[in-house]
Design goal:
The protein has 524 residues and is mainly α. The protein has a single domain (2-523), classed as Sodium/glucose cotransporter (Up-down Bundle). Helices cover 75% and strands 2% of the residues. The chain contains 20 helices and four strands. The chain has helices at 2-32, 36-41, 48-60, 67-75, 77-108, 115-122, 129-161, 165-213, 217-225, 264-271, 281-289, 296-324, 332-335, 338-346, 349-387, 393-414, 422-446, 452-473, 485-502, 508-523; strands at residues 235-236, 241-242, 245-246, 260-261. Strands 1-4 form a two-stranded antiparallel ribbon. Strands 2-3 form a two-stranded antiparallel ribbon. The longest helix is centred in the middle third of the chain and has 49 residues, at 165-213. The termini are far apart.
């Protein structure tokens, strides 16, 4: 009976949170339906706090509370901490260099309200090839990204309530779709602000209470060091597996092999996560949506502080979890439940439910962004941009919502596999966006000589190499086992430079616009 009562309290706490999210969606529904501009980018009306929190909350997603702690629990400090450091550096540089110029340039470039719009308008293309390529890559990679969010919510609910994963995943996905369908960008951004607060609160609270329960920081470190390679920057733990399950020794302690080496190549591989930020549409769109570009400096400070606290608390939770519950989670997929295990063990059910809402917050804040941007890429860039150029604003809005549902169904199909490892799903989509859009965004903003042909070459090279490297080259191992984002990003940059230099210079009109944007940035 106690267990049922506990589950009921968790359910009530999470239901209260969900009700607040739904209320936000309903509140913004009328304004969102006024125009596609309001629905897709909020009429460029965001303030600095909402811009910062919405960008970070939609970026981190459920992998921050499940995927990253799971990596730390399974492999130890190195893989997780170098990933976190890379993400922190990427976050800071993206806000410092890209945010303001993109906000100004996207407005000057015929008021572009999507990333494909901006790239296409930047080169004043008439046949919309860039628009089509960009929109198609967004559709593919955001379908994968949304699937990772649905896996997260499925694991969360099935673990908490003991119900079948597939049913829980579908119910969670349907809620996200309904909420995004109604409220659009403004609802997504406003709720992301609230969700960002819940996420950082949940991570910090669990990390602090976990440290106290484990006997303090020194006790956590001492116990973690007893596992070979577990608490090292340049070593990595090697769980001894049989059929994917970690073996338990005669003493009842999980078995680890000798520490693995975490060399320079591995460090470069994990640090390269930071390169992904320059090509993340769901982050870049928040830069474009702020009301006053001069307030982006304040947004940067808020975002960086949030990022540091959240990332390092997530890594700490994985380390603490292995110390407190060394034999509780014996597969890599199950290791991603360590945040749930700690929360339900440390706190009374109602408080645990509020903390669990942190995972739900992360999942919703990301999946609504992914679905909305993917749907808008089709409706605005392909439907209106290519097939039906005279489509009315209401027709674009209707097409966006229909596309949103279709993408969600595809993502649910991808997420049907309960054994999916969230971190791996996210890392592939992250590489896809980083390599496809990162280089072309950077060169478009900061290199006047980049040409339309160079942009097309860079996007095709980066996006396709992510697939080729992940599926064909990476399995060869050795130096080729590096994270696919790094080689794909570098290859995209090379393609942009080489093809741009081999093709004719951009028109005077395009170059003058570039100089105009640079002058505007200096003035503000």
């Amino acid at each position: 009976m106690g267990v049922d009562t506990g589950r009921l309290q968790i359910f009530i706490a999470m239901a209260l949170y969900v009700s607040a999210v739904v209320a936000i969606g309903v509140y913004y529904a009328r304004r969102a339906s006024e125009s596609s501009d309001n629905y897709l980018i909020g009429g460029r009306s965001l303030g600095p706090w909402v811009t910062a929190m919405a960008a970070e909350a939609s970026d981190m997603s459920g992998w921050l509370l499940m995927g990253l702690p799971g990596v730390a629990y399974w492999f130890g400090l190195s893989d997780a901490i170098w990933t976190a450091i890379g993400l922190f550096i990427g976050t800071y540089l993206n806000w410092l260099f890209v945010a303001k110029r993109l906000r100004i340039y996207s407005h000057v470039a015929d008021n572009a309200i999507t990333i494909p719009d901006f790239i296409s308008n930047r080169f004043r293309e008439k046949n919309k090839i860039i628009l089509t390529i960009a929109a198609l890559f967004i559709l593919v990679f955001f379908s994968v990204y949304a699937a990772s969010c649905f896996v997260t919510v499925g694991k969360l609910f099935s673990t908490l309530f003991g119900l079948k994963y597939v049913y829980m995943m579908i119910i969670g996905a349907l809620f996200v779709v309904a909420y995004t369908f109604v409220g659009g960008f403004l609802a997504e951004s406003a709720s992301d602000f609230m969700q960002g607060i819940i996420m950082v609160f949940a991570l910090t609270l669990v990390a602090v209470v976990g440290t106290i329960s484990a006997g303090g920081i020194s006790a956590v470190i001492e116990n973690a060091k007893s596992i070979p390679g577990f608490f090292e920057f340049f070593g990595i733990a090697q769980p001894v597996l049989q059929d994917g399950v970690q073996q338990i020794g005669q003493s009842g302690i999980p078995v680890f092999g000798e520490a693995g080496r975490y060399g320079l190549l591995s460090v470069i591989s994990t640090l390269s996560w930071g390169l992904g930020y320059f090509g993340m549409p769901h982050v870049l769109i928040k830069f474009m949506a702020i009301k006053n570009p001069d307030e982006l400096g304040r947004s940067r400070k808020i975002a960086v502080v949030w990022c540091v606290i959240s990332l390092f608390a997530a890594v700490a939770i994985g380390i603490i979890g292995r110390v407190l519950f060394p034999d509780a989670l014996l597969t890599q997929s199950d290791s991603e439940k360590i945040f749930i295990l700690l929360s339900t063990d440390f706190f009374v059910p109602f408080i645990a439910g509020i903390i669990m809402a942190g995972i739900l917050a992360a999942t919703i804040s990301s999946s609504d962004s992914y679905l909305l941007i993917a749907a808008s890429s089709f409706s605005k860039n392909i439907y209106q941009g290519i097939f039906k150029k005279d489509a009315s604003d209401k027709a674009v809005l209707r097409t966006t919502r229909i596309t949103l549902i279709i993408i969600a169904v595809i993502a649910m199909i991808i997420a049907l596999n309960e054994k999916s490892i969230i971190f791996k799903v996210v890392s592939f989509a992250w590489a896809g966006f980083g390599a496809t859009f990162g280089p072309v965004i950077l060169f478009s903003l900061f290199w006047k000589r980049i040409t339309r042909s160079g942009a097309i070459a860079g996007m095709l090279t980066g996006g396709s190499l992510v697939f080729i490297w992940n599926l064909l080259i990476k399995p060869m191992g050795g130096i080729l086992g590096i994270y696919e984002l790094f080689p794909a990003f570098v290859a995209s940059c090379i393609a942009i430079v080489v093809v741009s230099l081999l093709s004719n210079e951009p028109s005077k009109e395009v170059q003058d616009e570039f100089e105009h944007v640079r002058a505007l940035e200096k003035q503000s």
